[in-house]
Design goal:
With 218 residues, the chain is of the alpha/beta class. The protein is built from 6 helices and 9 strands; from the N terminus they run αβαβαβαβαββββαβ. The chain has helices spanning 7-17, 31-43, 57-70, 82-94, 117-127, 194-204; strands at residues 24-27, 47-50, 74-76, 100-107, 150-151, 157-162, 168-176, 179-187, 210-212. Strand 5 (150-151) and strand 6 form a beta hairpin. Residues 83-218 form the Dihydrodipicolinate reductase C-terminal domain.
């Protein structure tokens, strides 16, 4: 396989060489590049497995429509860690009993997008219950804009931290009268992503459309 920094020639090469075995593109690039990378891969009949976050809801919708029309599988996975999937499942269960929750996500200072795709997905999963979270009991005033973090559509605050020495970490903190319940996942080595990546590479060839989230293929 040739080594190149030009995506289109490589996609053409793989599309011509793959014969009966579908090609797979694994993308861990940059939010500015990932949308076009996915579209190009699907156009060549190559199935993307994407770990890059930062795609907007509109871009995700456009890519889902493009993949479905092409009958080509595509997996977009904000976090390939099995532990994070388990944290999200625990958070969804806990949210049935708590009405107040906030998310803190912590990443290395070379991460380009904020909040993280994993934090956004976690808020979306909690929001699927149809609950209203964090009903205000006082009128808040931010003395510094953004002090209370970003506000997701689900009414959940997401706080982003970027520091050298971090890899990828997330806390989901629930509060109620007299108690705090905290769920946390820490990545100490990126090797934890590889089982999920390998699973996604195997599964994407069985798909005919875009699927979002590792939990959908476990």
């Amino acid at each position: 396989v040739p080594i190149t920094n030009q995506l289109e020639p490589m996609l053409g090469y793989v599309a011509g060489e793959r014969q009966m075995q579908p090609g797979v593109l694994v993308d861990f690039t940059h939010p500015d590049a990932v949308y076009n990378n996915i579209r190009s891969a699907i156009a060549y009949g190559i199935r993307p497995v994407v770990g890059t976050t930062g795609l907007s809801p509109a871009q995700l919708e456009e890519l889902a429509d493009f993949a479905e029309k092409a009958s080509t599988g595509c997996l977009i996975i904000p976090n390939f860690s099995i532990g994070m999937v388990l944290l999200q499942e625990a958070a969804v269960r806990a949210s049935q009993y708590f009405d107040h929750v906030e998310i803190i996500e912590l990443h290395h200072n070379q991460k380009a997008d904020a909040p993280s795709g994993t934090a956004i997905q976690t808020a979306q999963l909690l929001g699927e219950l149809g609950k209203t979270f964090n009903t205000a009991i006082v009128e808040e005033t931010e003395k510094i804009a953004g002090a209370r973090g970003s506000l997701a559509d689900e009414g959940i605050r997401i706080h982003s931290i970027r520091l050298p020495g971090l890899i990828a970490h997330q806390e989901v903190i629930f509060g109620a009268a007299g108690q705090i319940y905290t769920l946390r996942h820490d990545t100490s080595d990126r090797a934890c992503y590889m089982p999920g990546v390998l699973l996604a590479i195997r599964k994407v060839n069985q798909l005919k459309s875009l699927v979002y989230g590792l939990e959908k293929i476990l």
